UniProtKB/TrEMBL annotation:
<dbReference type="InterPro" id="IPR001585">
    <property type="entry name" value="TAL/FSA"/>
</dbReference>
<comment type="similarity">
    <text>Belongs to the transaldolase family. Type 2 subfamily.</text>
</comment>
<keyword id="KW-0570">Pentose shunt</keyword>
<dbReference type="GO" id="GO:0004801">
    <property type="term" value="F:transaldolase activity"/>
</dbReference>
<dbReference type="GO" id="GO:0006098">
    <property type="term" value="P:pentose-phosphate shunt"/>
</dbReference>
<dbReference type="InterPro" id="IPR004732">
    <property type="entry name" value="Transaldolase_2"/>
</dbReference>
<dbReference type="GO" id="GO:0005975">
    <property type="term" value="P:carbohydrate metabolic process"/>
</dbReference>
<keyword id="KW-0704">Schiff base</keyword>
<keyword id="KW-0963">Cytoplasm</keyword>
<dbReference type="GO" id="GO:0005737">
    <property type="term" value="C:cytoplasm"/>
</dbReference>
<keyword id="KW-0808">Transferase</keyword>
<dbReference type="Pfam" id="PF00923">
    <property type="entry name" value="TAL_FSA"/>
</dbReference>
<comment type="function">
    <text>Transaldolase is important for the balance of metabolites in the pentose-phosphate pathway.</text>
</comment>
<dbReference type="InterPro" id="IPR013785">
    <property type="entry name" value="Aldolase_TIM"/>
</dbReference>
<protein>
    <recommendedName>
        <fullName>Transaldolase</fullName>
        <ecNumber>2.2.1.2</ecNumber>
    </recommendedName>
</protein>
<comment type="pathway">
    <text>Carbohydrate degradation; pentose phosphate pathway; D-glyceraldehyde 3-phosphate and beta-D-fructose 6-phosphate from D-ribose 5-phosphate and D-xylulose 5-phosphate (non-oxidative stage): step 2/3.</text>
</comment>
<feature type="active site" description="Schiff-base intermediate with substrate">
    <location>
        <position position="139"/>
    </location>
</feature>
Amino acid sequence: MSRLSRIADFGQQVWLDQLSRQLLRGGRLRRLIAEDAIAGVTSNPAIFQQAIAEDPLYREDLARLRAAEPDPERRFEALVLPDIREACDLLRPRYDESRGDKGYVSFEVSPRLAQDADATLAEARRLWAAIDRPNAMIKIPATRACLPAIRDAVAAGININVTLIFSPRQLDAVFAAFRDGLAARHAAGLPVAGLRGVASVFLSRVDARLDPRLAEAAPELRGSIAIASARAGYAHWQAVFGGDDFAALRAAGARPPSCLWASTGTKDPAYSDVRYVEELIGPDTVNTVPAATLEAFADHGEAAETLTRDLATARRRLAELAELGIDLDAEGEVLQEAGLAAFDRAFDALLERVA
């Protein structure tokens, strides 16, 4: 067994945070699925911006679409949605074998719609129909404005990957949106079994923002807050979806959204390059891993159940952070705005390239 495939022994899925035509046509994704138990793929505007810029396999189709499709956003979709479908088809055996637990491929709604719930829901419906694969996931940001879109998309039976979650308050709001969407669907007499979702909690950006302030005020907390928050968030997930409030939906076949650990590439070279993988391995979770981190773990990562390790210490560190006057929920709002701005810039660069 490879080092990566051993993670599955502890109930966690590893998804690749990368997609390109070369990855598909060159056979690397197929090998990762077969040899390293890669169970899904995520994409975002930055990933596709890089792929289209660097992968020569896009050039011929892009030249054709420039002549045939006048709208840059529709041109981009016409270029990459076939890749999303191809990745879904490649992962379909994993989806079928696991009865819908694994094998998902995520595609994001336009980041320009992050403050418009109605437009986001309409885009989610349109993209879900356009991809037309049961193992697709539509990515929606965890902004306050989009919470109703998340709830209504779940109620409509669309698999959702909620992205850009940085704080406990944001995570709890996403849990509520999923729960309300499942409840509305069940109340309407529609099936809730087979519907899948993930709540993508971003990690390394939290430490990158807080570490400079902690260096003098509390150096012992440096590099620990993102992991502590993730462990506390997972304990909250267990409480929310493991208790009586979710029992009726669970009996009807509903599955709670899994916690997905995102932004898992280490930004500070002083830390281990696999720390955001090794420290958060546990059941019913997903880790979406960029290519460099995937290669690092394949080389020297160690798999063990670590997610539930020493929850008391995680909570103590979060309490110490609050005692320093640092509000993790407020910091999460800042980080989410920065993340949206970064996706906007990547999307603009992407549309400029296809135009």
